[in-house]
Amino acid sequence: MQSIIANLKKRGFEAVYAKNREEAVQKALSFIEKGSSVSWGGSVSIEESGLIERLKAGAYELIDRSRAKSGEEKTELMRKALLADTFLTSFNAVSRDGVLFNIDGNGNRVAAIAFGPKQVIALVGKNKIVDSESELENRALKIAAPKNAKRLSLSDEKDICAIFVKTRICRTKGRIKIILVDEDLGY
Predict the structure, then answer these.
(1) How buried is 59 (Cβ within 10 angstroms: 0-12 exposed, 13-18 middle, 19+ buried)?
(2) Which of 60, 131, 162, 186 is deepest in the core (most CB within 10 A)?
(3) Three-state SS for 70?
(4) Residue 105 pLDDT more than 80?
């Protein structure tokens, strides 16, 4: 994992190691200023880690689309998340040479990763690491997409594969923070 962290850093990402999800949550919280605005996209990794519950118990301004009372309100909250101080997510795949890959159904997650929030914090389990950049899309399509489609009760996993984003360099050095977790996390 240390070589992956070094490769991520060479590409301008801030990257740290966590031995388990509890340590990953502690590291994520250390990056988030009290009182700041925080949001997240649909991420099983973030949910499984317990980070959202810790944030709800803390002193943060949460932008939580799950609390929306209508489709219009949900869309508005997803738009507001693009201006959050911190956006939480994961990646469908990370290559050993430090390239990140995501697929998205609505585009809110990949939009926030690409531009908007002051910082993006991603918890990435070891199950999402692939050997090379050429394997990123395959892992996302063959492993993550079917599981996410089932979780969201979609009849076809292609419904979740609307937008593909490969992130090779973080031009605003350190804006995207990757916490590599030495256990399986998410899909």
Answers:
(1) exposed
(2) 186
(3) coil
(4) yes
Q: What is the rounded end-to-end Cα distance, in angstroms, of the chain?
A: 18
Q: Give the residue with greater pLDDT, 174 vs 155.
A: 174
In the 8-state DSSP scheme, what is residue 127?
G
Output the CA–CA distances (angstroms, integers) from residue 17 to 55, 79, 103, 124, 183, in the order listed. Answer: 21, 31, 24, 10, 11
- Asked if 146 and 108 touch (Cβ cutoff 8 Å), the reply is no
Nearest to 51 by CA among 23, 19, 13: 23
Report the alpha-carbon distance of residue 91 to residue 78 in Å, rounded: 18
Residue 6 reports pLDDT greater than 80: yes
Q: Is residue 126 a contact partner of residue 183, using CB atoms and an 8 Å limit?
A: yes
Q: Which distant-in-sequence residues (6+ apart) come within 8 Å of 22 by Cβ?
A: 50
pLDDT value of residue 148: 80
Strands 93-95, 100-104: pairing is: antiparallel
Q: Which helix (H) or strand (E) holds 162?
A: none
Quick check: 131 pLDDT over 90?
Answer: yes
